[in-house]
Design brief:
Elements lengths: L1 E5 L2 E5 L22 H8 L8 E2 L2 E3 L6 E3 L5 E3 L8 E7 L2 E12 L5 E6 L33 E5 L3 H12 L5 E5 L28 H6 L2 E4 L4 E5 L4 E4 L4 E3 L2 E4 L3 E2 L13 E2 L4 H11 L3 E5 L3 H4 L7 E6 L18 H8 L4 E4 L3 E7 L2 E7 L4 E3 L2 E4 L4 E2 L17 E2 L11 E3 L4 E5 L5 E3 L4 H15 L11 E6 L2 E7 L6 E7 L4 E8 L2 E8 L4 H10 L6 H4 L1
Parallel strand pairs: 10-11, 10-16, 11-12, 16-28, 18-25, 19-20, 19-25, 20-21, 27-29
Antiparallel strand pairs: 1-2, 2-7, 3-4, 4-5, 5-6, 7-8, 8-9, 13-14, 14-15, 17-26, 22-23, 23-24, 29-30, 31-32, 32-35, 33-34, 34-35
Helix pairs in contact: 2-7
GO molecular function, one term: 2 iron, 2 sulfur cluster binding
Family: Belongs to the FAD-dependent oxidoreductase family.
Pfam families: Pyr_redox_2, Reductase_C, Rieske
């Protein structure tokens, strides 16, 4: 149990984050967990108060936030809530009452053990509150009499959170999630971590869960066109579906390089569980060439192979506005170099050559040839919006759908969310940006659902990103696009640091390695609208 005191009020909650099980006690102001000097410096900075502010508690690992009074989820990436236990104060002592576990007596009778004060009442056996760190938020049920249909295109986290939020907020109409994927929504961040997992091992919600909550899941159902005037979507299989409200959350896709030989066998992209398993099988013990030095390229530590990694520059974390400054980027790569990964930075791929239809070599512009049994391409993401070509929906030059802070497009009753959109970013003074990460997509889906229900909810979130290499986690919060200066605390060489990104004299983002919960603290300060000057960062 996590006991929280906010001024004179006490709350008792589950002690682990329901996302990946992070200890929420590490997010409290008394936490150290390394980096004592950095922590003390943060406490001395008036702009950074604590990792729980007001009635919010923020997870130090991935930034999920919970209401300390109710345990309800208030910020993603976690989907579920915390248990909230009864607290009483008597004679200066705090008592917490909770169901500890269900046990069976020698006579075979089930009993419930309690922790704290209070009589044991004869209510039915229920969930073991102390043994489970999560609580699914209550939802409304589907009413057959309601003729309103919300159609969600896409099977990722944006569509999933939109569907769940609709039910949590009392919507009783029809909710349809249509995806070209074969699976229920799954945790894509795990595709590079445990590459031998099956899709069902990483489901965020099972098909049974969705069915129980009145959410229809249509798999292998790809949209090919939308008639916005008739409010109808046409699918690849020839079917169509009318809607009252539409969410476009079709995500993005990888693309193969435009070089000779890109169509050879064993030239791969990583987008699905099947791709992940295939790459692991093909590359184990073989020569793997990775094109691109961004997220996918730097996270394939689970593949026991000989790695060559090609990048046009030090691109680590630079896509989607989450970047380490170029002068510091080589240091995180050192972790990979220490494990035998060979880097060819600022290198250009000229062609891929093959034998018997399979890739055999990657030829660089310099003429150097790298042996390649498998080539993995991770050179950027492109919006899945081609099916909207020729319609009146507003898109930018890359194909990203333009939305406002209500996730509303320029077409009535049509919303968009996640990787497929470009949206105004508050930290950039409203400048539009595409930020393609799980937490942001979930926040989009939540805001879209509330605005479908006419609740007039503006998107208010601080982007929070994380990545792990060989057991070391990098946290990032904010949006560093267009930064002009940095403040570095700690040591990059020793792989223990905190970096502030400065734009127009104030901090707009921060990244850290082995300095938890600093980034969570900074995220909460930015969320509260605090401006941290360069001088305060220093």
């Amino acid at each position: 149990v996590l006991l929280v005191r906010n001024k004179k009020e006490f709350s008792a909650l589950s002690s682990k984050c329901p996302h990946y099980g992070a200890p929420l006690s590490k997010g409290s102001p008394g936490s150290r967990n390394g980096g004592e000097k950095l922590w003390q410096g943060a406490l001395a900075t008036s702009a950074i108060a604590g990792v729980f502010r007001g009635e919010r508690l923020r997870c130090p690992w991935h930034g999920a936030c919970f209401n300390i009074r109710t345990g309800d989820i208030e910020e993603y990436p976690a989907l579920d809530c915390l248990h909230c236990f009864k607290v009483t104060v008597e004679d200066g002592k705090v008592f917490v009452t909770a169901k500890r576990k269900v046990w069976t007596s020698p006579a075979g009778t089930k009993h419930k053990q309690h922790l704290g004060v209070g009589a044991i009442s004869a209510f039915p056996i229920c969930f073991q509150d102390l043994e489970s760190s999560l609580r699914v938020k209550a939802t409304s049920k589907r009413c057959p009499l309601s003729r309103t249909t919300v159609l969600l295109l896409g099977g990722g986290v944006a569509a999933l959170v939109c569907a769940e939020t609709l039910r949590q907020e009392g919507f009783t109409g029809r909710v349809i999630m249509a995806t070209k994927e074969k699976h229920a929504p799954y945790d894509k961040s795990k595709l590079t971590k445990e590459m031998n997992l099956k899709a069902e091992d990483i489901y965020m919600r099972t098909p049974e869960f969705l069915h129980a909550h009145g959410i229809e899941l249509w798999t292998e159902k790809e949209a090919v066109s939308v008639d916005f005037q008739k409010q109808k979507v046409h699918f690849m299989d020839g079917s169509s579906q009318k809607y009252n409200q539409l969410l476009i959350a079709t995500g993005c896709h990888s693309s193969l390089p435009k070089v000779p030989g890109a169509d050879l066998h064993n030239v791969c992209v990583l987008q699905t569980p099947e791709d992940s398993s295939k790459i692991l099988e093909l590359a184990t013990g073989k020569n793997l060439v990775i094109i691109g030095a961004s997220f996918i390229g730097t996270r394939l530590e689970r593949v026991p192979s000989h790695h060559w990694l090609l990048g046009w520059e030090w691109l680590f974390l630079q896509h989607s506005s989450l970047e380490l400054p170029s002068e510091h980027s080589p240091h995180p790569f050192q972790m990979l170099q220490d494990k035998g990964v060979k880097f060819y930075m600022k290198a250009e791929l000229r062609e891929l050559t093959g034998k018997d239809g399979k890739v055999a070599e990657a030829v660089l512009a310099s003429g150097e040839k790298l042996p390649a049994d498998v080539v993995l391409v991770g050179i950027g993401a492109f919006p899945n919006s081609a099916f909207l070509k020729g319609t009146s929906i507003a898109r930018d030059a890359s194909g990203a759908i333009l939305v406002d802070l209500h996730m509303q497009t320029n077409i009535p009753n049509v919303f968009a969310a996640g990787d497929v959109v470009s949206f105004p970013v508050a930290l950039l003074n409203g400048e539009r940006c595409s930020i393609r990460h799980q937490q942001v997509a979930e926040a989009h889906g939540h805001a879209a659902a509330l605005n479908m229900l006419k609740k007039e909810k503006r998107l208010h979130t601080i982007p929070f990103f994380w990545t792990t290499m060989f057991g070391k986690s990098i946290r990032y919060a904010g949006c560093g696009t267009g930064y002009t200066d940095t403040v570095v605390k700690g040591s990059l060489e020793q792989q223990k640091f905190l970096i502030f990104y400065i734009r127009d004299g104030v901090v707009t983002a921060a990244a850290s390695l082995s300095c938890d919960p600093m980034v969570a603290l900074i995220a909460e300060a930015l969320y509260a609208g605090k401006q941290i000057s360069k001088e305060e960062a220093e």
